Amino acid sequence: MTRTSYAELAERVTPYSGSASMPWVSGAWNLEDVRGLETLSREMARQAAMIGYLDAFAFFIVTSLAVLPLVFLIRIKR
């Protein structure tokens, strides 16, 4: 999920996007400098990892809720 999220974030970042030209949004991400691109890439990787963790957490919640009714079918022998 992290790789997928990174790919989705990367396709939206172009030098022609309107948000790249806004100084209060871009911050230290100078798209014309190698160091700025590296900083932007690290930030996108950090955000993609967070999206991946959230997606995995949601998957685990849904899976555990789907299996929970099976717990009531288990009989304990006495």
Write down the overall mean pLDDT.
85
List the total number of helices. Answer: 3
H/E series? HHH
How many strands, which pairing sense, and closed or not: the largest β-sheet? Answer: none
Helix content: 55-70%
Cα-to-Cα separation, first versus last residue:
45 Å
Characterization of the model:
The model has no long low-confidence stretch (mean pLDDT 85). Helix content is 65%, strand content 0%. The chain is rod-shaped and about 70 Å long. By secondary structure, it is mainly alpha-helical. Helix 1 (2-10) crosses helix 3 (34-71).
Descriptors:
78 residues, mainly alpha, 3 helices, rod-shaped
Summarize the structure.
With 78 residues, the protein is mainly alpha-helical. It has helices at residues 2-10, 23-26, 34-71. The chain has one domain (2-71).
Question: Secondary-structure map with pairings?
Answer:
Elements: H1 2-10, H2 23-26, H3 34-71
